[in-house]
Amino acid sequence: MLSSAWAPNVSVFLDGSERSVREAALAVAAAMKAEPHRWTFDSEGPDWSTWSVDDERWGSDDIDWLVWEGTDVSVTLFTAGETPAGPGTLPAHLQLSIGRVDTPSEGLPRDDDRARRVLREGSVVERWYLAGERDLPADVVEALENDPDPRVRAAAESERWIREQAFGGPQPAE
């Protein structure tokens, strides 16, 4: 999927059993490490790419992104096990993100016309990403909170709650 909030990058998500997610993450990491002449490897936490699928350390809280920097591109790989989320759980998942190194990490500057265009013409994923942008016009926020897709509505409500918490406001209604 293409994130319209940050210029230009691509994120690929995979969810499934913890074993299948770990196998996929380790396969991606092995492919990246197979070309050390192309990439500089970095990680804030432990280098889990060297672990086995069954390693006990997968349950640790300090698993972080693995990052490979190239000349023009940064590749990040993240994985997480099944996680409690509200009344249910999120499945085990990984995210592989590929982005340009010459764009700001905080995203593109505010563009109300683009936000309204994504709202009108964007896919569910684009609208979901749009809901997470920090600075949106009030009409766009309201439209996202009333989006036909429940995932977009939930993201918009969650983001409103986060913004209001920063200013001491109330939690969204459930």
Give a structural overview:
The chain is 34% helix and 22% strand. By secondary structure, it is an alpha+beta fold. It has a five-stranded antiparallel sheet, with helices on one face. Strand 5 and strand 6 (88-90) form a beta hairpin. The radius of gyration is 18 Å and the shape is globular. It starts with 8 loop residues before the first strand and ends in an 8-residue tail after the last helix. The model is unreliable at 169-174 (pLDDT under 50).
Could you outline the blueprint of secondary structure elements for this entry?
Elements: E1 9-16, H1 18-33, E2 40-43, E3 66-69, E4 73-80, E5 83-85, E6 88-90, E7 92-100, H2 112-121, H3 124-131, H4 138-145, H5 150-166
Antiparallel strand pairs: 1-7, 2-3, 3-4, 4-7, 5-6
Helix pairs in contact: 3-5, 4-5
